[in-house]
Amino acid sequence: MKTTVRLLPGLLLMISAGAFAASELMVYANQGQDAAQQEQDEYQCYGWGKGQSGFDPMAQPTATAPPPEQQAKRGGLLRGAARGAVIGGIVDGSSGAKTGAGAGAALGGMRRIDQNRQQAQSQQQYEQQQAAQYEAGRSAYNRAYAACMEGRGYTVR
Q1: What single DSSP character describes residue 23?
Q2: Under a CB-based contact definition with an 8 Å cutoff, are residues 110 and 126 in contact?
């Protein structure tokens, strides 16, 4: 079952730029077809190509899977400092609390930075996967459309 999710603006822009380049098929009438006949053939081949490939080049791109879930924020400077102060205070009194707070803040900050990096990496992989799936669908449609038009006496490049 496909999940329909609107794509993020950056991904949509990336896909649209690729789609524009991919949709620039050149069609030449080999058998002297007039403009009205070519338009009719293009419309019929659009429907046939869409049916064969399962891809509609006129539809707005949608995601085939939901985006990666955002993890709940963990750690951070303040939470790390508080934990470090508590542990340092238990172990070594007030001077240990100060040292522990500093160490805890540093660890909490590093933990948050690592979490943000992992989420950004997951999002980038998701966007690349969606773009690749879109391009594969577009390519299948272009091949089907070209086959239909060539069968009707056109050269397609």
Answers
A1: T
A2: no
